[in-house]
Structure formats: C-alpha cells, structure tokens
Amino acid sequence: MDTKNKGFATKLIHAGFHGDHTGTVNVPIYQTSTFAFRNAEHGAALFAGKEEGYIYTRIANPTVKAFEENIAELENGSHAIATSSGLGAVSTVFLALLSGGDHMISTDSVYGPSRGLVEKQLSRFGVTSSFVNTSKLEAVKAAFRPETKLVYVESPSNPAMLVTDIAAVAELAHSRNCLLVVDNTFASPYLQKPLDLGADVVLHSVTKFLNGHADIVGGVIVTKERDLCKRIRPIMVNFGCNMDPHQAFLVLRGLKTLSIRVERAQENAIKIARWLETHPKVEWVRYVGLESHPQHELAKKQMSGFGSMISFELKGGIEAGRKVMDAVKVATLAVSLGGVETLIQHPASMTHAGMSKEAREAAGIGDGLVRYSVGIEDINDLMSDLEQALQKA
Ligand code: LCS
Questions:
Q1: What residue numbers bound the domain in which 304 lies?
Q2: Number of domains the chain contains
C-alpha cells in the first residue's frame, strides 16, 4: 500500500514494508549477517554502488530497512538510519556533523550521558560546547560563535521538561549556517514533528516510546534531506553501531500501537499531574500539559498532545524522594521511560549522576526531583500507589 497520503495510525502499521513473494503480513526477521552475491560481477556492482542490494548486515538489512522507511515517513523525513541505541544515534550524528575546532550549542538539561558524550569525549577531539537553557532564545543567540556548527535541542528535555521553540531555534541556527538536530524521544512523532518545524535532523532513543515495551535498546536518526543522510550513514557503518534485525522486528511491532499507547498514557498523566499539583507533600510539578508549566503555551503550539512524562519536587528533598521510591508497588523503580509500564526514578542519583551538582542545579535538576514515566495501567491503581508512597515521604 502507498501510505504517503494516509493518516498517522495507518502509517504506523503499514509504512515501510510492501510484502514479499510469500504473502507474509509482518516483516520477517532476516536473521543473517551476510548476503550471497549471484556472481563476482554482482558483488562488485553492489560494492561500487552501481546496483541496489544487500551486502552485510552492519551496512544494511531488510528488516532494519523496513523500520527505517517506516520512521522516515512518520517523521516526515526523507531517510532514516537505525542505530544500536539512542546514544549510538546521538554519537553518530555528532561524529558526522562536527570536527575538531567546531563548537556546538545544546539544551542544558539533556539526558545526562548525551551531555557527557560532548563534554567528556568529543572535547578530547577539540569540539567545544555551550550548554544553555534553550527555552530562552536570548541564551541561544548569545551562545553562537563563529565556529558554531550545530544546535542540539531536546524538547521536552529529560528530566527538567523544558520546552524549546523549535521553529525559532531553527531560524536562528540557519541564519548562522548551523544545523539543528532535535532529540524527539520525549514527544515521539505522534505528538511532535521537528522536521516540519524546521529542524534538519531528528533522533530518538527507540528504547522509549517508539518501541514502548521495555524489551530492547535502540536508536534512530531521521534526516530531512537525502544529502544529510549520505553524510551520516557512513559514520554509523564505520563505527559499527547498527541496529540488528531482531531489534528492528520488535520496534516494528511496538510501533503499531504508538498512537493508542501515547493517548492512553497521556490521559493517565494529566490526571496524575493535576492531582500531584494539589498534593501537600509535593513542592511543584513539571508536566507540559499543566497551565503552570512555564512553556505550556509553546507546547500547545508545537505539540499535538502533552505526553506522559512528569517531574515533581518533593517537599522533603532527597530523603523524601528515597522513601517514595522505596514505597511504590505498582510503579517500578527503574531508569528508562516511555513504556507501557509506569517507571519512577531519581535523576540526581541515577540518570544525571554523571553531571556536577552545579550543572544539575543550573539545568533545573534538584536533589529532590522525582521523574515519573506514566504507563497505561489503570489510573486508580497508579494513583492509590503513589498516594500510599507519598504518605511515607
Ligand atoms: N535521548 C534521550 C532523551 C534519552 O532519554 C535517552 C535515554 C537517550 C537519548 C539515550 O538512549 P539509549 O541509548 O538509552 O537508548 N534515557 C534514559 C533515561 O532517562 N533513563 O534510562 C535511559
């Protein structure tokens, strides 16, 4: 079926795979490392790029390709590159688009290891960086240098839930000959399409909403233009961080229900966020669907829904946080997010422990901050679970 002009839910299920000679309904797992050439001439033609086909799974694989074509359509992009993990997607993009002497600007409250990659690893190769509050356009403007090549935005950000004006930052970046890369993990293409807003590249930790079932780690990069894909794909191949066919099969299965999972989880999330906002043990709540969120109006403009990630600060600080995390029974105390199961974690001691306390605080990640990824369990079970846990705080 040609899905180009079909709706999002139809694309989720049908885009990227057009069947084969067996009549299979689902994408088969092409569990092979290598592909036979018909003869020497065929092998040489494939290597020379004169003929299309498969050579070796690190370079390309039909199951992985089906996922790449599906997500490229979902994000309204031209091409996609699947990777072994979300961080594999982040590092592939940076290694492709930055060289020694270049400078990049990033949202300060990005996923901790994405920041660590830049500050601890890329810095060894002469890449410099400025981590700023990208929800403030003035801060982005002030961070540009003559050698800036890339702006990297996570919106909403993990875990401060900052929302950045993607269209405005795209304009700023392009006016200075820079590319804009957006990590769309927290929103998913169901709620936000950064390429439509002006970004050049969008990436995901597929581990989260796209797969949705907490059973694989994966990543993906989608480019607006074919030329950018041509710059980025060889880096994935050279550094060997390809997605494997079994991962791709599971993502394709998870993706089919993305829209209904996100709908149900955000229905739960708004109820929980509103209730937490009135709770005596809670200092404040950051959920982009709440009127109290500083960028709520912007989120309404650039997203078609508010998702299911909530951060909240407990009145009792870190000790209260520990007690709540030890007391929950329906939510699971674990990192990661975006799955059908509700997860709770403490960024300061877990996902963002690699950042200095000063950098964490500047990025709005206090010691008492709790991150709650709302799943699709029964709302009454989630709320009574959180209530009994909060009583122990
Ligand atoms: N980008 C964002 C926004 C993320 O939240 C994560 C992982 C990554 C990239 C990296 O993806 P991965 O390699 O893990 O697939 N975030 C995690 C988190 O908040 N808890 O555990 C992992």
A1: 258-390
A2: 2
